[in-house]
Structures are given as C-alpha cells and as structure tokens.
Amino acid sequence: MASLAGITGWGAMMRIRVLILILACATGMAGQTPDELRTMREANRDFVLRDAVERGGSDIPPLYRGLVEASENRVGAAERDLQQVLKSDPHSKDAYAAYEALGNMAFRSGLNREALRWLEDAHANFPDSDDMNNALPMFRALAGGGDMKVVRLRDSSVDSKNGLPVVINGKKVTYGFDTGGAQSVMGEADAKMLGLQLTHVETRMRESSGTTIPGFDLAIAKDLVISGLHLRNVPFLVLKDTGEPFVHVPVGQRGLIGLPVLIAMRAIRWEPTGGRCEFGPGVRVKGTPLQNLLFDGATPIVQASVEDRPLTFSLDTGATDTDLNEGFAKALPDLIKSGKKETRDITGYGGSNQYDSVLLGPTVFRVGGLNVTLKVPHVFPSHSLGKFDGNMGNDILDQAKSVTVDFEAMEMRLN
C-alpha cells in the first residue's frame, strides 16, 4: 500500500520544519552555545539536540528545552518553557518555532480546539505567513468537530491479520494503522457506507510522491471503538477511491488509523507474521529503555544505524517500502558509490513521480535493538521530500517477530 505520510500535520501542511540535530562529534560536547543549538535545530537530526539539551541542564535557553520536551511528549514542561519564549518576544523566529511545537503537541493528541488556538495566536503575530494562511481552514474544520476524547481504554488483544477491527458509529470496518499519518484517513465509499457527513476543506497539502493536493474532505466519526479503546470525535481525511491507496481495496477496508488514535492507545505491539495486535498500558516496554523514539511535529521518528553511523527515520507503518533519502547518502558516501544508478517511482495519493535513485546491495540496519537486512534498498540522493535520512516502512518492521511502539516511554523495540 502506498504511504500517506507527509500529507497531514501542521509541519507538513505549512512545510514548516522543526529541524533538529547535527554532527556526530556533537555527542561528545558539553555546554553548547545558543548558536550551536540553533545549528542543531536547523539541521536534520533530532536526537543529538535532545542529548545536548539534557547535558546542558538549566543553562539551556527555554526554546531548546521546550522543543526537546515537546519531542518527548512531556506536555506540561514543554508548555511552560515554550510559553516563556512567547512572552519574551511573540514576533520572533523563536516564537514561530514555539507556536509550531505547541500546536503540533495538541494536534497529534486530538486536541483540535487547542491546536487551533495556538495557530490563530501564531497567525495574529505572523499574519503574512502563507503557510499559516494555508493551514487555518484545516484546523478550523478539525476544531469544528470537537476534541477527540478517550471514553475508555483497557488492555486489548485483537486479530489484526487483515487489519484492526474498528466499529464506527455502530458499523464494523477493518482498517490498517499508519504511524506516518498525522490523521486517520478513509475512502469516499467507506464514508458513504458509514453515513458520515463530509466537510470540504480548501487547503493545499504536499504528499509523499511530491504532488500537491488542492483540497480534501473531512469527516468526524462521533463514536469509534477498537476492542477496549472507545473514542469520541475522531477526524478522518476522506480521499477519492479512484487512486492509491484504496483503489484496489474492498469497501469496508478502505481506511487507515492515524497517529492521534495510536497515541491514545499509549502503547501498541503487533506481530507482522503472527497476526496479533495488542495495545494499552500493559503493553508498555520493560527493561532498560532504548530512548530511540521522538516526535518531530506530528511525525514519530526513530533512531537507527548503518555501519555504526546514527541515522534518523520517520516511522511509517503505512508504507510498504523503506525510502532512503539525501541524508542517508551524505552519511554513507562510500556505500552510495558502490551502488547502481537508476530511476524509481514514488507513489502516493496524488499519483507517481520518478526520481533518480541508487540501488544498493544487501544492507544491515540496527533498529530497535535488532539487526535487519534490506536486500535491495533504494536511495534517493537528491529527493527533496525527505527531511530525515529515510522513511522506515514495513519491509524493515516485518522482519521482526514483534514490534512495540511505546508512546509514553518514547521507545520502539523489535524482537
């Protein structure tokens, strides 16, 4: 199934990038200056900034403390530090970054009214921002549907061989789940079958193939149940059924459960080959934490390595294949030189686009405590869509017996 990663989220819709991390040598430094921290933020590695901020203690400026706290989903601490930035100078570049982080924390947890409040406050201070003007219709539509609310959560185990068993407004469907989707999505035929009311939203979004989508429909599922998880007011982006990812999928299966619902589960574990999925507080990881998961805006990112080089990947269970981007090529130039030049299509909801790529031989990735091998990885050395070193899809995750994503410990573990 084609990936829907990148078509939703404040950062994606506005193309504002809270860019973080830097040079491998920074891991040995102590007491970075604000300029050095800014360099980390404007690069594309979030984990080094996190480590630098944690080493710096109280000497770290509130913006960088707040950004790291937001990436770890420490909401209370992040709000205190980021609001301090806003009080200092609400028209500064630092304030712009603070508004984005505050809005995305609310957005990815389904607090749509709070997310709109942060966006409107930001827009009042940056009224000429094209990105904010583009994002406002989406956030107003989401807020009009109310906040997503957790009615009940208990530990659950379900058969997920064909997808998660979902009940929407009393009707059963079977949907996959997409950590790369900042919102849940469904096809038009499913929305009609479920009797959902559609609201058209005029906003531009760029999706994974590089195509810009001029607008879309939004539906609010007033009641959604997945075994022991019961939610109210769950938004779904409604996509046309004439193209990817739903054109070949039966009605009743044309949907993907996105990040806000998955975060509400607190932790989720699935067996790629066994067909079981568990979620709830009891699924949380145990033992020494790997500390390998963060949020960048509305995107979960995971730390991995190839040939002992640390790399950052967006985590995308809605993607069949792992894409390796420009950052990967720069981190491992000798590996790229050994590959074969070719071209390859990237397909998303908006269609397919062709990009120059490099075909590598079998390559070992260290991910979530496990070594996995991609037999024919493709690198897009000049692919401008990927702000991370790669987008991790199911060709990596499916090699594990089980995958656990713990949104409270902020850890992904492969067994």
Structure, explained:
The protein is α+β, with helices and mostly antiparallel strands and 415 residues long. It has three domains: 10-108 and 111-144, Serine Threonine Protein Phosphatase 5, Tetratricopeptide repeat; 149-283, Cathepsin D, subunit A, domain 1; 293-414, Beta Barrel (Cathepsin D, subunit A, domain 1), CATH 2.40.70. Helix content is 29%, strand content 31%. It has 13 helices and 25 strands. It has helices at residues 10-14, 34-42, 46-56, 62-71, 75-88, 93-108, 112-125, 130-144, 188-193, 259-265, 326-331, 333-337, 394-397; strands at 149-153, 156-159, 164-168, 171-177, 184-187, 198-201, 205-206, 212-213, 216-226, 229-239, 255-257, 267-270, 276-279, 293-296, 299-306, 309-315, 323-324, 340-348, 351-359, 363-367, 370-374, 378-379, 390-392, 403-406, 411-414. Strands 14, 15, 16, 17, 18, 19, 20, 21, 22 and 23 form a ten-stranded mixed beta sheet that branches. A six-stranded mixed β-barrel has the order 3-4-11-5-10-9. The chain has a five-stranded antiparallel beta sheet with strand order 2-13-12-24-25, with helices on one face. Helix 3 (46-56) crosses helix 4 (62-71), helix 4 (62-71) runs antiparallel to helix 5 and helix 6 runs antiparallel to helix 7. The longest helix is centred in the N-terminal third of the chain and has 16 residues, at 93-108. The chain is globular, with a radius of gyration of 20 Å.
